[in-house]
């Protein structure tokens, strides 16, 4: 028998690989070690044997077989489980990575390959001057979304080097302090809140010289230059199954890049993963606002989100604002930042913010006193299976979160014909301003699925009031909530933009305007209309937005995007427990939606506000969720790893805890507790 002391002192050979650039020095170094040698001691012995005078502080051991970093330098080799057959690579923790931003521009920068992705994204956002990094993450393009490009051109390569913005010399990469992700109210504005152009002091966040201006311009200002050929080369989802492919490649925020097979100089997509854009402010967020705008713009151009022809023209008109205003942008003087214009932008911002249930804790007195009600004659439309839609006028009363309807106003004191509880329902606009159609589609959860109810309003004002009440009621809020009036104004503002056909002022003659309309609409509409027709219609729609500043046009674009029924939905193909067919699961900022894969119709909606708990059975990769009233669901994810959906749910709940009241740093521990899981 050998004593443990004698066994522990026994030396053995360990072959280490050193990742260095010195050709005259061996890369594989054998060392004699003992099991009680700690990782820091191993690093010291290795550096002494290499005898290369350089800074080794960024180096650490990467264990190839186990796919993990040995970062706890005080641990012994025995505690780490390292034996003679271990392949340890002594390599840098920070490596070059290429990121495709939402505006389709590529930046090259140095990123930590050993930190968790959540921390790495925070560091990246500091380099790019983007606040609220918790809203973003890194996405690997799945094979399915690259097939089309490969078929089109087998020789197609990544963007040329001149198209890549190199930020490897930025302050963060150089180890210098960077702009914090959060700001205080005394922080100096770093962007012009009207034009979005960077203030002179902002240049210091980027590298010196002419690159600084180029960096700010690429990140904070919009350059809408896309051709039909460029769109044709990009992946355009046609079905819900296609849309599910877009969300399959999100990286695990609780693991490092190296652990997820990301290599140096690989290209990843930096995208807004969570659609809750908190505390947008044009004084500090020009880059963030521009990148959100660009992500929305490309989602619409590539038809990742559906919109009507009327809505597409609004989006085209708001994009055209850049084209029409590009000459005036350079001539804008300092007095353009007058208070009135700043106030207009900040007023638009107040309509933009999306908060989760419980996220907006208002102290206004009206929230706890008398709850207002709506009462009007509306048309009720009920789809019939064997006949046309039955349309009839009733007297409707909206109180709390419920709608009751009666035969007429006089009978409103008695029992209603029916009472509809809207809490947890889906609210879908059905509007055509040109045709004077103002409809609200309600999908109300019932035991066996969703009950469809259509309401028809007479005019814009009535529609805005009832639509806002329905949206709030679906979230469990009443009209007494402080967000009701802003919601009404947001809807009216959107309708006003849709009202382009009523604005018949002399639009510029299409012949006199050098515009490529195919750059502003999706291919579907490029095929439907001739170029001259599209130009005329876009310019006509542009009359309504021509007085907006560039930043306000972006904010309105984002607002219009948020108003689309499919906004914020990320799709996954799942198989529910007990079901024999696949369904689509839509994950939004406040709910989960089960959708029929064949028809695209919602089947059931579950609100996060009603969720009691959720967990994952990692052995069978099944997500199980419990809701109020003894409702429970379980499903396996077929189009992606179940960890992605688990992280989405936990991430949205984490984001709902944010508050403007304090500017504390992100609670990274809470994020990982909610999203990490226990595999």
From TrEMBL:
<keyword id="KW-0966">Cell projection</keyword>
<dbReference type="InterPro" id="IPR019749">
    <property type="entry name" value="Band_41_domain"/>
</dbReference>
<dbReference type="InterPro" id="IPR019747">
    <property type="entry name" value="FERM_CS"/>
</dbReference>
<dbReference type="GO" id="GO:0005178">
    <property type="term" value="F:integrin binding"/>
</dbReference>
<dbReference type="InterPro" id="IPR035963">
    <property type="entry name" value="FERM_2"/>
</dbReference>
<keyword id="KW-0965">Cell junction</keyword>
<dbReference type="InterPro" id="IPR037843">
    <property type="entry name" value="Kindlin/fermitin"/>
</dbReference>
<dbReference type="GO" id="GO:0042995">
    <property type="term" value="C:cell projection"/>
</dbReference>
<dbReference type="InterPro" id="IPR019748">
    <property type="entry name" value="FERM_central"/>
</dbReference>
<dbReference type="Pfam" id="PF18124">
    <property type="entry name" value="Kindlin_2_N"/>
</dbReference>
<dbReference type="InterPro" id="IPR037837">
    <property type="entry name" value="PH_Kindlin/fermitin"/>
</dbReference>
<dbReference type="Pfam" id="PF00373">
    <property type="entry name" value="FERM_M"/>
</dbReference>
<dbReference type="GO" id="GO:0007160">
    <property type="term" value="P:cell-matrix adhesion"/>
</dbReference>
<keyword id="KW-0130">Cell adhesion</keyword>
<dbReference type="InterPro" id="IPR040790">
    <property type="entry name" value="Kindlin_2_N"/>
</dbReference>
<comment type="similarity">
    <text>Belongs to the kindlin family.</text>
</comment>
<protein>
    <submittedName>
        <fullName>FERM1 protein</fullName>
    </submittedName>
</protein>
<dbReference type="InterPro" id="IPR011993">
    <property type="entry name" value="PH-like_dom_sf"/>
</dbReference>
<dbReference type="GO" id="GO:0005925">
    <property type="term" value="C:focal adhesion"/>
</dbReference>
<dbReference type="InterPro" id="IPR001849">
    <property type="entry name" value="PH_domain"/>
</dbReference>
<feature type="domain" description="PH">
    <location>
        <begin position="379"/>
        <end position="475"/>
    </location>
</feature>
<dbReference type="GO" id="GO:0007229">
    <property type="term" value="P:integrin-mediated signaling pathway"/>
</dbReference>
């Amino acid at each position: 028998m050998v004593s443990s002391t004698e066994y522990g002192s026994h030396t053995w050979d360990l072959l280490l690989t050193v990742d260095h650039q010195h050709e005259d020095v061996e890369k594989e170094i054998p060392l004699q070690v003992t099991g009680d040698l700690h990782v820091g001691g191993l690093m010291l012995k290795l550096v002494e044997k290499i005898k290369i005078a350089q800074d080794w502080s960024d180096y650490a051991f990467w264990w190839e077989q186990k796919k993990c970093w040995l970062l706890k330098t005080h641990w012994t080799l025995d505690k780490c489980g390292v034996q003679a057959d271990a392949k340890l690579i002594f390599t840098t923790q920070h490596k070059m990575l290429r990121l495709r931003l939402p505006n389709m521009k590529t930046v090259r920068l140095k990123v930590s390959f050993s930190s968790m992705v959540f921390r790495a994204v925070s560091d990246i956002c500091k380099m790019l001057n983007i606040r609220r990094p918790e809203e973003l993450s890194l996405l690997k393009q799945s094979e399915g979304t690259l097939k089309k490009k490969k078929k089109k051109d087998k020789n197609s390569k990544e963007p040329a080097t001149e198209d890549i913005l190199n930020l490897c010399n930025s302050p963060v990469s150089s180890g210098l302090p960077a702009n914090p992700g959060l700001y205080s109210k005394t922080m100096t504005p770093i962007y012009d809140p009207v034009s979005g152009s960077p203030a002179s002091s902002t240049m210091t966040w980027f590298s010196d010289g002419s690159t600084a201006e180029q960096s700010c311009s690429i990140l904070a200002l919009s350059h809408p230059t896309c051709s039909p050929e460029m769109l044709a080369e990009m992946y355009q989802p046609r079905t819900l199954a296609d849309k599910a492919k877009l969300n399959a490649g999100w990286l695990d925020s609780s693991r490092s890049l190296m652990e997820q097979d990301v290599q140096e100089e690989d290209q990843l997509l930096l995208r807004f993963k969570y659609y809750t854009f908190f505390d947008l402010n044009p004084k500090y967020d020009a880059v963030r606002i521009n990148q959100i705008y660009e992500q929305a713009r490309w989602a619409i151009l590539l038809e990742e989100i559906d919109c009507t022809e009327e809505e597409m023209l609004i989006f085209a008109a708001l994009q055209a604002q850049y084209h029409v205003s590009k000459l005036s942008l350079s001539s804008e003087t300092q007095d353009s930042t007058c208070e009135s214009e700043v106030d207009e932008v900040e007023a638009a911002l107040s309509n933009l913010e999306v908060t989760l249930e419980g996220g907006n804790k208002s102290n206004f007195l009206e929230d706890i006193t008398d709850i207002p009600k709506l009462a009007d004659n509306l048309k009720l439309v009920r789809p019939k299976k064997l006949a046309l839609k039955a349309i009839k006028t009733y007297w409707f009363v909206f109180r709390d979160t419920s709608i009751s309807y009666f035969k007429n106003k006089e009978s409103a004191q008695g029992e209603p014909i029916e009472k509809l509880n809207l809490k947890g329902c889906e609210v879908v606009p059905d509007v055509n301003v040109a045709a004077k159609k103002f409809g609200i589609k309600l999908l109300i959860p019932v035991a066996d699925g969703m009950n469809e109810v259509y309401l028809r309003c007479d005019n814009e004002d009535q529609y805005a009031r009832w639509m806002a009440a329905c949206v709030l009621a679906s979230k469990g809020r009443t009209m007494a909530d402080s967000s009701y009036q802003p919601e009404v104004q947001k809807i009216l503002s959107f309708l006003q933009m849709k009202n382009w056909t009523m604005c018949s002022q002399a639009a510029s003659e299409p012949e006199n305007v050098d515009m490529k309309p195919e750059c502003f609409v999706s291919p579907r509409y490029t095929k439907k209309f001739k170029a001259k027709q599209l130009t005329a219609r876009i310019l006509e729609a542009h009359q309504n937005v021509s007085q907006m500043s560039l930043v306000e046009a972006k904010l309105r674009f984002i607002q219009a995007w948020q108003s689309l029924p499919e906004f914020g939905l990320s799709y996954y193909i799942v198989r529910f427990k007990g079901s024999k067919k696949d369904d689509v699961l839509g994950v939004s900022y406040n709910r989960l939606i089960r959708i029929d894969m064949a028809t695209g119709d919602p089947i059931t909606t579950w609100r996060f506000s009603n969720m009691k708990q959720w967990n994952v059975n990692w052995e069978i990769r099944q997500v199980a969720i419990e809701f109020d009233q003894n409702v429970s669901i379980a499903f396996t994810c077929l189009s992606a790893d179940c960890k992605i959906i688990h992280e989405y749910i936990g991430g949205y709940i984490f984001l709902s805890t944010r508050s403007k009241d304090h500017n504390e740093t992100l609670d990274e521990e809470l994020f990982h507790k909610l999203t990490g899981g226990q595999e």
